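Cross-check.
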Amino acid sequence: MNSRSVFPVLSGGEVYESEGVGLFLPCAHESDLPRSVLDIVASGEAFCVNTAFPLVFDGLSALRQDKKRFTLTLVGLGDVGATVLLGLKLLGSDIDSIRIYDPNEALCARYEAEFNQILPMYSDVPKVEIADRSKLFDCDAFLFTASVGVPPVTENIPDVRMFQYARNRAMLKRYAIEARESGFSGLFAQISDPVDHLSRAVFIDSNTASDGTMDFLGLLPEQIQGYGLGVMRARAEYTADKIGVDRRDIRVYGPHGNGLIVANSPNENYDDDISLALTEAARTANLRVRELGFKPYIAPGISSACVSILKTLRGQWHWSAVPMGGAYMGCESRFTHSGIEIRREKLSPKLTERLTETFDTLRRFDYR
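Predicted model, tokenized:
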């Protein structure tokens, strides 16, 4: 319940680390591993496997596949889903097909027609197809954007994302169970809000047997990522430009909403006042758009979902919520053949304190 199933080992001491905020810092643990093992670590080919997960070696086999072309399934064709679909159609040069599904069959038919009538800027544009409901998980990545009960812009709700948790969790549960039953080995990309909490819910629900016990025969923790942090990075950079702050050293962590952490710089140049101002501006940017009378879905659909998922599949650094110590914590990471590699660097003590507070809050949340 509190461990990753597989992760790359870049220094010998990482084998002994507990999972928490320390994973963002350079490893402080000494290693007593044999020299022969340390030589493998030095080569960059070492990884750690938790054999308590019955399906971990199946998952590892899937990770080791060197795929260059991908098939995606996109569930939910509301405002966010349509925006994600457009971005993937225009930017997904390594995607063979995007299979779309929505209960509204007319909407599926419309988008299948319109998106396949877009003139290409390059030769390998993905084809948009209507998904067979019984084969949603016959893909490399499953993208879930469907949402229930997004409040109208006229309602003044402090945290719109958490407002959606209970109903989105109920809707998402059947897809988590279907992923389990189909033996899905790809990426489950959770996009509807709140992405961090729902990612953890997908892990729990897919690993729960029909009698209510946890048997861990569903998705491995690394198979699930939550996509909400990319837009927070973009919003922080947007604000930095407005107030004259250098955007190059900005870091973002934590959930897509309350608990978000933006830092103007990770280490000696960290400024708490500037960082808190950037955090507040990024956290509430969606409310500024709602005050104008619009739902803020364009930037999240492109920055958090489309761009970040493409970078995930390509093994590039991106921003998403990843499994860590019994929660899904937003950070910069990349998907490798040996699991998820998290960006590690020296951090300001004050920033580390903020990270610890957010991480502890995520862990304490009642996911049941």
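The chain has a mean pLDDT of 94. Residues 109 and 130 are 7 Å apart (CA to CA). Passed to J.P. for a second look.
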